[in-house]
Amino acid sequence: MIQKVWFTFIWSTIKCGLFFYSKKITILGKENIPKKGAVLFAVNHPNGLLDPLYVTTTNKRQNHFLVRAASFKHPFIKKILVSLYLMPIYRIRDGVQQLSNNQEIFEKCHAILKKKETLMIFPEGSHNKKRTVRSLSKGFVRIVFGALEKYEDLEVTVIPVGITYQHTSHYPAKVTVNYGKPIATRALYESHPLAKSIRILKEEVYEQLKVLSVHISDDQEYERILQQLNKAQIDFTEVNKTNKMIQTNRFPVAKPPKKNYLKPLLYLIKLNSILPYLIWKKISKNIDEVEFIDTFRFSINLFLCILFYGIQALIISRYFGSTLGLFYLAISALIIIIYVKLTPTNAKEHAALV
Predict the structure, then answer these.
(1) What pLDDT is recorded for position 92?
(2) What pLDDT score was predicted for residue 348?
(3) Cross-strand pairs, 42
(4) Considering only CA atoms, which of 245, 254, 281, 268 is closest in space to residue 331?
(5) Which residues, including other chains, have CB under 8 Å from residue 30's CB and lie 6 or more apart?
(6) CA-to-CA distance for 145 and 194, rounded, in angstroms?
(7) What is the pLDDT of residue 4?
(8) What pairing do the DSSP bridges indicate for beta strands 63-68 and 86-89?
(9) What are 22's strand-pairing partners?
(10) Do 196 and 244 share a domain, yes or no?
(11) In CATH, what number is assigned to the domain containing residue 168?
(12) pTM score, two decimals?
């Protein structure tokens, strides 16, 4: 009970934070999510730990997450992650001897599905900002079919989920979360030999992900197509429209990027958040993977800005009255909302950030 209250509090805080962080969050296919029963969300993975945050805050199911084991190295961080229903998944790069730990994790996943709760898995196995759906590992299939084998009365619904960003690692974010068609797995598991069932489920999820997110084949044409889309200032979050251009090889004419006349507001936001901004700038120098820039930027600034704005509001209230303190908070929030919601997001924009 305490864990659920804690999770709900963090979930609500993150959902509110994403509102202030994102220019627009488009949710498609939400009607495909079953209100009850065991569900496994199979999600593409372009943008680090921000991907599960967008998925879990755009559906009302109680989600459990499988994330890479490296995130659990620090004991304190591990306790926080476990309290938020995150579980480690081990890969060869974590050490061959660590792979045996996955069996225990799979058992926990089976128990979660037995309780008719939900799992979120990233079957590409790693994050990559490239606009390509990569080959899927069979780990998620092993979990599903393992649960079906263990519990004969269980049905597990697999829902592919495509995430597409206008940019990864840029602020403000603009993203589409696209829930695909449910795949019933019991009949598939019982109708074919195991090897064939595994192949069919992987192919079905893969084919759906190529439609649910922007997909450019990773071949010699990738860079040419991407450049054509960028030059035309395409809104990548219009997934169906963008994929149609890619499939037909027909692109709009090149357009100049829109000017950002709200840039002065960004400097005002930085000045008002000077301590969180300076802390972020120092930490950002040590981020090696571009796919983790958004993750750290959002996480650090969410909690630091809440704390920093709260302290500043208390100081103002102490010396000038509570009305002015509340007015400061309201104006600070309004400035961020105006900048985030109205600033243009061009196809090739390198925005600074708070």
Answers:
(1) 61
(2) 62
(3) 121, 160
(4) 268
(5) 58, 59, 179
(6) 9
(7) 80
(8) parallel
(9) 173
(10) no
(11) 3.40.1130.10
(12) 0.91
2-21 vs 322-342: helix crossing angle, rounded to 10: 60
How far apart, in Å, are the Cα atoms of 331 and each of 58, 79, 335?
27, 36, 6
Give the dihedral sign, CA 275/11/91/131: negative
> What local confidence, expressed as pLDDT, does residue 95 receive?
63
Same domain, yes or no: 194 and 227: no
Beta bridge partners of 179: 161
Q: How far apart are CA 66 and CA 222, in angstroms?
A: 30
- Write down the pLDDT at residue 353: 42
Write down the H helix ranges in 84-233: 102-114, 139-150, 186-191, 194-212, 222-231
User: Do residues 16 and 160 both lie within one domain?
Assistant: yes
Task: Please answer whether residues 171 and 47 qualify as being in contact, where contact means their C-beta atoms are separated by less than 8 angstroms.
Answer: no
318 in the same domain as 246 = no
Among 177, 212, 247, the domain-final residue is: 212
In a domain, 298, yes or no: yes
Could you state, in chain order, the average pLDDT of each consecutive group of 10 residues for the chain (354 residues)? 83 94 96 96 93 93 82 75 81 65 88 95 90 93 95 96 93 96 96 95 98 96 96 96 96 92 94 93 86 87 92 96 96 96 76 42
Measured distance between the N- and C-terminal CA atoms of the chain, rounded to whole angstroms: 35
Six token digits for residue 38: 């065991």
Question: Does the residue 350 lie in any domain?
Answer: no
* Chain position carrying tokens 């195991």: 194
Structure tokens at 305: 């800005």
Phi (first) and psi of residue 39, to 5 degrees: -135, 140
